[in-house]
Design brief:
This protein is α+β, with helices and mostly antiparallel strands. The protein is built from nine helices and 13 strands. It has two domains: 115 residues, Phosphorylase Kinase, domain 1; 146 residues, 2-Layer Sandwich (Muramoyl-pentapeptide Carboxypeptidase, domain 2), CATH 3.30.1380. The strands form four sheets. A five-stranded mixed sheet has the order 2-12-13-10-9, with helices on both faces. A four-stranded antiparallel sheet has the order 5-6-8-7. Strands 1-11 form a two-stranded antiparallel ribbon. The chain binds zinc ion. Zinc ion binds next to strand 6.
């Protein structure tokens, strides 16, 4: 971990905390903040501590899985039966990561309250065998090669609405509501129509991916997909205000299983599935 990077990004946070323009800066699509070395000096007294990665929970929510990056084995204890928590197309064997399941349940409740009914989960966790079958039969043009689908994590969920076909979903009131609101539950529309060149996947208005509320908020507000978000975090780090709390998101690599985090701050650690880690600090 480069300590200097933390110093810079936290110093900028101090500047922003007292700056009324911060909201404007964050909401204009330029949420990315580039650190400035001049601001290092004021925060050199900040304490740091080493965190042993075997002592903390490492979240899977930001794992980048696409044609270039294979899914890795997840802890199957994280999977829960989707039924009867949410309506499903097939009761038996419909599994989701428990975090994704609760997000979907919360979203369905609010959709119903907003007058949009009939939503159900049509696909969740897929084992490798199932993805191989989908891919081999050639009928599912959307399926990624076996091992390279987010569905292997249980964090991806396909959502349909009763009486609405896949083709109709994007234009339906349910599809539009989900596209605009899913971020509030920590879910992102993973393959938007205008990002096919980035994701490598055609528009899938039914495919949502759980990333957590703060990350989903930033990605939605800035219209970036997971590939772009990870790149922003890796390049310069990202700072944003969410629910009145400053969030700092940075990339780091572990050294001998140890990473360095600012002292006395609430943090979460995520694997990026690229060999590194993403740290989110809140204050
Ligand atoms: Zn899907």
């Amino acid at each position: 971990m480069k300590r200097r990077v933390w110093l810079l990004i936290l110093a900028l946070g101090v500047v922003f905390a007292g700056c009324e323009a911060v909201q404007d800066l964050m909401s204009d699509g330029q949420g990315l903040v580039v650190a400035d070395e001049k601001q290092e000096t004021s925060n050199e007294r900040l304490g740091y501590r080493d965190v042993d990665l075997t002592d903390v929970e490492i979240y899977d929510y930001l794992m980048l899985i696409n044609r270039q990056n294979r899914a890795r084995a997840i802890n199957e204890q994280d999977l829960s039966a989707a039924w009867p928590t949410v309506p499903v197309s097939v009761i038996d064997g419909m599994l989701l990561h428990h975090s994704a399941l609760w997000a979907v349940a919360e979203m369905f409740d609010e959709a119903r309250a907003a007058g949009f009914s009939g939503l159900f989960v049509s696909s969740g966790f897929k084992g490798l065998d199932e993805q191989e079958r989908l891919y081999d039969n050639g009928r599912n043009v959307f399926a990624l090669p076996p091992g390279y689908s987010e569905h292997h994590t249980g964090l991806a969920v396909d959502i349909m609405a009763t009486g609405v076909s896949q083709v109709q979903l994007a234009g339906s009131e349910q599809g539009r509501w989900m596209a605009e609101n899913s971020w509030r539950f920590g879910l992102i529309l993973r393959y938007p129509e205008d990002k096919q060149d980035v994701t490598g996947v055609p528009f899938e208005p039914w495919h949502f991916r759980y990333v957590g509320k703060a990350h989903a908020y930033f990605m939605f507000q800035n219209r970036v997909v997971l590939e772009e978000y990870i790149e922003m975090v890796r390049n310069d780090g990202v700072v944003f205000d969410f629910n009145g709390v400053e969030h700092f998101v940075l990339h780091t690599n572990a050294q001998n299983g140890i990473i360095e985090v600012p002292d006395g701050m609430d943090f979460s650690i995520y694997t990026d599935n690229l060999g590194g880690f993403i740290i989110m600090v809140r204050r």
